[in-house]
Design goal:
- This is Translocon-associated protein subunit beta.
- Keywords: Membrane, Transmembrane, Transmembrane helix.
- It comes from Lupinus angustifolius (Narrow-leaved blue lupine).
- Pfam families: TRAP_beta (PF05753).
- With 146 residues, the protein is of the alpha+beta class.
- The protein has two domains: 80 residues, no CATH class; 29 residues.
- The protein is built from two helices and eight strands.
- The strands form three sheets. Strands 3-1-6-7 form a four-stranded antiparallel β-sheet, with no helix packed on it.
- Strand 6 and strand 7 form a beta hairpin.
C-alpha cells in the first residue's frame, strides 16, 4: 500500500456549483490496483464556500518513480451555460518501494531537539567563567609604587 499526497483543486466558488464530477485517472493499471472506492466521483451540488473531498486507496504493483496527472473536476455554475473545468495541483514524483540507503539524520535530530538547551548551558558556563576568573588589569595594578 502507498500513502499519497493530496491533490487539491483550488478555485473560488462564489456561487453554488452543480453536477460536479471528479476524474483522477492518472494511476495506470499496470502499476497500481485500486483497493477501495474509485478514482472518480460525482456530486449533485456544492454550496458557496463548501468543501468536498474524495479518497481512494491504491496498491502498488511495481517499484520505481511515478508521477500522476492532475485530477480533472467538471462542474456547472448558474452564470455560465457551458461546463466548467478545473485541475488539481500536481503531486511531486513518488519514489515507490524504492531501495534507498539510510540517511544520516542522527546529528540533525539531536541538534533540533537539544540545540537550544546546549546554547543556554554554554552561555551560562561562559558567564560563570567570566565572573569567576580574576581580572588581568586588577592583578597588575594591585600595589602602587611610591
Amino acid at each position: 500500500m502507498v500513502g499519497l499526497q493530496d491533490k487539491r483543486v483550488n478555485f473560488p466558488f462564489y456561487l453554488t456549483a452543480y453536477d460536479i464530477s471528479l476524474a483522477d485517472d492518472g494511476w495506470p493499471n499496470d502499476a497500481f490496483n485500486v483497493i477501495s472506492d474509485s478514482t472518480s466521483k460525482s456530486w449533485e451540488k456544492l454550496d458557496s464556500g463548501g468543501i468536498l473531498s474524495h479518497t481512494f486507496e491504491l496498491e502498488v504493483k511495481t517499484k520505481g518513480e511515478f508521477s500522476s496527472k492532475p485530477a480533472v473536476v467538471k462542474f456547472r455554475i448558474p452564470t455560465k451555460a457551458s461546463l466548467q473545468e478545473a485541475y488539481s495541483t500536481p503531486i511531486l514524483p513518488l519514489d515507490i518501494l524504492a531501495d534507498r540507503p539510510p540517511e544520516k539524520k542522527f546529528g540533525w535530530r539531536l541538534l533540533a531537539k537539544y540545540g537550544s538547551l546546549i546554547s543556554v548551558i554554554s552561555i551560562m558556563v561562559l558567564f560563570v567563567q567570566l565572573v569567576a576568573s580574576p581580572s588581568k588589569s586588577g592583578a597588575k595594578g594591585g600595589k602602587k609604587k611610591r
